Amino acid sequence: MRCILLIVWLVLPYLAPVLGALEFVGQGIKDALGEYMLTDIMTDANTGIEFADGEDGFPAFKFLSTADVKSPYQMLLPEKLYEFAILITYRQGSLKGGYLFSVVNPLDTVVQLGVHLSPVVKNSYNVTLVYALPDHSPGRKLASFAVDHVTDKWNSIAFQVYNDKVVFYYDCKVRNTTAVVRDPFVLAFESASTLYIGQAGSIIGGHFELSSNQRPATTSKQQPPTTISKLNISQHINEQYSCR
């Protein structure tokens, strides 16, 4: 027994740096691959979230009006984004719209990056890519695209964000290409910025709330909450990333 303790005592100083480094291996691999799954911040501790099955059988997350999912952006995202892609699979449940995700400045007043769904009007709504410096207006739209609203439908959208254009995919097909001026071209997040899922913070809001004609519990066809099954950002743009 003394021999075993002696071996452990001799080896432990060499293991400590390795064990400490293992904490950063996962994020290091993500940075090397340039792939970031924002749903990784979802846990059982999040309030206002219900777990469900997605269209492909993988876990999905229902967002109630009380949902409060947030994390320091540095837990999942790099400090800077150049050309990048966003891929989201969701089922729209709020006719009032809301933010699928957002990265908000430390004062919670400016969405530096996010995807917003507008209220549904005449069975359609706009999907908007928000992109801004921390000191810009809170809702600067880089590109916006119209989408038909179909109850209970799973939607797959993707943005490919280049230097001078944004390509929008809907259900794995190119729907539109919009020329843009990215100012600045490099999107640099402030160190204390916050990543939100299903909202844009306490000041800007953007929660997915059920509209008045969706609330009564007496109706058997009550619209389900907005559900997200995939929410990824990649620093590598390719055709395959528009539908995965």
TrEMBL record:
Boundaries of every Thrombospondin-like N-terminal domain copy: 35-207
Protein name: GH15384
Gene: Dgri\GH15384
InterPro entries: ConA-like_dom_sf, TSPN-like_N
Organism: Drosophila grimshawi (Hawaiian fruit fly)
Lineage: Eukaryota, Metazoa, Ecdysozoa, Arthropoda, Hexapoda
Gene3D superfamilies, A to Z: 2.60.120.200
SUPFAM superfamilies listed in its UniProt record: Concanavalin A-like lectins/glucanases
Keywords, alphabetical: Repeat, Signal
Stretch forming the signal peptide: 1-20
